[in-house]
Amino acid sequence: MDTLTIPRPDDWHLHLRDGEMLRAVAPHSAAVFGRAIVMPNLTPPVTTTEAALAYRERILDALPTGSPFQPLMTLYLTDQTPPGEMERAAAGGVHGIKLYPAGATTNSASGVTDLRRCEETLAAMEAAGLPLLVHGERVGDDIDIFDREAAFIDTVLLPLLARHPRLKVVLEHVTTAAGAELVTGDDPRLAGTFTPQHLLYDRNHLLAGGLRPHYYCMPILKRRRDREALLEAATSGHPRVFLGTDSAPHPRHSKESSCGCAGCYSAPIALPLYAEAFEAAGALERLEAFASRNGPAFYGLPVNEETITLERRETPVPVSYTAGNAELIPLRAGGTTAWRIAVSHSP
Ligand code: NCD
Ligand code: ZN
Ligand code: ZN
User: Is 105's C-beta closer than 6 angstroms to any atom of ligand 1?
Assistant: First the structure.
């Protein structure tokens, strides 16, 4: 198989930022994806429906003229989010509420310190049918960074699902064998997204033979055996695993620093990278469900009517992009991808 035509995919976990960065990166996602769940971890975070709708307008303004790309907005959950905001969010077209445990990742300082403080708001989310999208890491001085996801599953996620029987949850950017096993279980309320970097790379790529800051993201790349379990889960055909790039742009100087930011910029090459991962697993025919069908089914949205065609052709990855005065280094900068996007068609 040297070409593959699938319904236009969506990105169920994307950071678009704001201002000059937004204007630089939004066209990259809009060229490939039909819709994206847009993360709310701006500074200050997007905590109200009103702020989410204003952010949505700024995203639409940053798109190329005539682009049909649809940003799907989310709210940033804090200890203080009022339960009443959930009904406003659902009525205003917000698609999910994002849980950042305080201190877990980029711009998570205003995140939740203890989920028990959000019980009423979580109940309002259940009533409104709004899914909770989780950065699934438990932080604490006593928890090793490589164990944060497993600790979150055992001590936060499983008790949460037990306390809120109607709550829909997406475990975002699954990075461990434990996470992969959980989301491919039989709980219809629980789904998982998978990033290209966690399917293709492990911690050796980040740490062996030199420290590579552009492979540094949260949750951190894990062991090879975790990566193999993720690849098996993502390519399994399970209906609740789907594409979420977690493309997270940072200026080059913030990544190449004595205290560098977490986040990999993948938007322009994410789909070819997923094709590589699926091909390596001998599961190219399952890319369509993962990239284009399972996400809309979980979120209750239609599959995109347009199509996109991937072609097997070695294609260079730019060494950098420009974002205002800053430089932006993509994943696999200066390398090549085995696939490229050949054409995208209207219905
Ligand atoms: C993301 C970012 O930069 O906003 N960083 C990351 O390492 N993944 C935040 C997140 O998704 O955790
Ligand atoms: Zn995250
Ligand atoms: Zn993210």
Answer: yes
